[in-house]
Amino acid sequence: MRILDRYIALTVLQSTAVVTVVLMALFGFISFVGEFGDIGRGNYGALQAGIYTLMLMPNIVYQMFPLMVLLGSIIGLGILAGNSELIVIRAAGVSVWRIVWSAMQAGLLLTVIMIIIGEFVAPASEIKAQSLRANALNEQVGFHGEMGLWARDGDAVVHIKDVLAAESVANVSIYEFDVNHKMSAITQAKHADFENGIWVLKDVSRSVLSGQSVQTTHPERVEWRSMLAPQMISVVAIQPEYLSVVGTYHYIEYLQKNGLDATKYVLSLWKKAISPLVIAVMVFLAVPFVFGPLRSVGIGARIFFGVLLGIGFYLADQTIAQLGLVYNFPLPVAVSVAPLLFLGIAALLMRRVR
Fold it and tell me: What does the H/E/C string look like for 290-352?
């Protein structure tokens, strides 16, 4: 049985790999075309757009992984069915559920691969991609570290450690220089919001350097007129899907300690937590395509229905999760509805399997 397990699992893995390459090429081309409007701005040329697109691929793979697994499983099992190998396996006394378990072993390995991509590859690649794009489009901005940016603002240099949103940042340091390029003042703020066309620094500490002395004041609010517009900040606003599980957890802690809304990051954390269940559901859902009502149709029709089902799952998952945010549903419930719904669909289809 181990030989059979390896054979079925390997077939599913190979098919998933082919599907991944094809979809990466498709979505990569679409992403590259989407950059045409910015090519020619600053130092952002076709080469930079191509590199940026390639760096986006790990995150695209991570976001589309359930669809890739579903199609890979359908195609892999469909190939075995088309070659009459599944008929031989069934004739040898192997049950459908035993075949499901063999396919699930491929799902376990795919889950490990997805976790590695989501935890280590996609977050780092996404940050480097956004850094490259922002630097090429506007030389005024440079990035250093996982959550922060450096920017030149006239005669000052600005460091923003935490980008919460395009119009809201935290832990801001502004280093001002005189005409002789000597530091003249340092302004630090725990929070800053863009209000009525200007930045308003809050909980401020300002130190003015004069000769051998330093004068420090602690105003509650300071208006900061800066060339650093929210449009520039938006390129590094931290998106929940771009963070690893560990990074998401720490960021939630940071937001909660500072009294900021962390709901969408908590939602993202729950979605990452149930991702192994999603992969298992996708593999299980592929089985009825081979043994169930669709066993007599061609591989093209199976792929078509698989794509529709995968898109349906993605839309249902996103819609129900967002409704959970709007109507304050328990987040574990909101992220579990779509996987459990499609698990139920697979179970109903499996009842028709002979």
Answer: HHCCCCCCCHHHHHHHHHHHHHHHHHHHHHHHHHHHHCCCCHHHHHHHHHHHHHHHHHHHHCC
